[in-house]
Amino acid sequence: ELNDLDISDFIKTKISTFSNGLQTVGKPYWLTSKQKRENQLAGSVAVAFRTEKDRRLAISQRLYIAGVSCRVENLLSIPRDQLCRNCNKKGHETSRCTR
To answer: Which domain of life is it from (predicted)?
Structure first.
């Protein structure tokens, strides 16, 4: 299990090793709390890429982390008060969430 302390180095190493040398910058971090991740089989991590070209390649070709193909999306910066508190998606209120 990956925790907050070792995810940064693990993700950076796996991306550069298994994803055609794509280079990350900064520290990757979980997008959900540790408490919420305890009951999940998968999670989302924010990763910044060194160049726009690397970002586009990651999105179009997916990333491979520890042999697992991972979907890549642009991270949209949305104020927390505009997101559903249940599923962290925009477009509906928490009281109307179907998840």
So the answer is: Eukaryota
